[in-house]
Amino acid sequence: MAGVGRWFRRPAPVVSSDPLRMKAIHPDYHHDAVVTCSCGSQFTTGSTLTALRTEVCSVCHPFFTGEQRIVDTGGQVERFRRRAEKAAARA
Length: 91
Ligand SMILES: [Zn+2]
Prior knowledge:
This protein is elongated. By secondary structure, the chain is an alpha+beta fold. The chain has helices spanning 62-65, 76-90; strands at residues 30-37, 42-47, 51-54. It contains two helices and three strands. A hairpin with a 4-residue loop joins β1 and β2. The protein has one domain (27-90): Rhinovirus 14, subunit 4 (Irregular). Bound molecules: zinc ion. Zinc ion binds at residues 37, 39, 41, 56-57, 59-60.
C-alpha cells in the first residue's frame, strides 16, 4: 500500500495473533451481542458490549412495517401541536 500516509507505516506496540487488532488498545469484541428492542424482539450483532437496548428495530419501525405511524420520542409531536395551536391563536 504505497502512499497511504505515515499513520500506516508506524509499527503497532503490541500485536496479537490477529494482525488487525492491537491487544493493548482494542476492547473485547463480542460477535453475539444481544440487541433487545422495546417491542420485545431480539437479535444478535457484533459489538464491544455484550447486550444492547434499542427503542426501534426493523420489526417495529414504520418504514419496515408499512404502517402509517409517527415514531415520537420525548413528546416532540405533542410539543409541535401545542406550538402550532399557540401560533394559530395569535394570528
Ligand atoms: Zn422493535
